[in-house]
Amino acid sequence: MSKLLDLYRKNMETFSRLSRLSVDCTQAVARCSGQAFQQNLDNVANAIDSISTGQPSNSRIKKSAQIIQESLESNTANARELAEILTRSNREIFEVVGQRMRESVSELQDIVPASETLRKAATGKR
User: How many domains does the chain contain in total?
Assistant: First the structure.
């Protein structure tokens, strides 16, 4: 019976660890998204400033094109960073689950023969 309780305890510890990993991932995604949003706001403010200045239209067009290009590069980098965060988190979660499943199978193999031996002893069979 203590082996079953130990198995249950280890499973609960694994679920707890998975919850922490999930929270960490969620926080990292929120942080990255917030930074990307702030960058986009800054880019929009810069674009508005450059358009509203008294510069010749060619100069404003070039500046706008530059800001758009920088925004696209920034958004691409942010999307890549989000994808890396999610990939790393998923990999870690699956490793934890896979390891616990392998351990559980091994532990169950130890418990089942012991249970069978006890059942046979209780019924007087060999």
Answer: 1
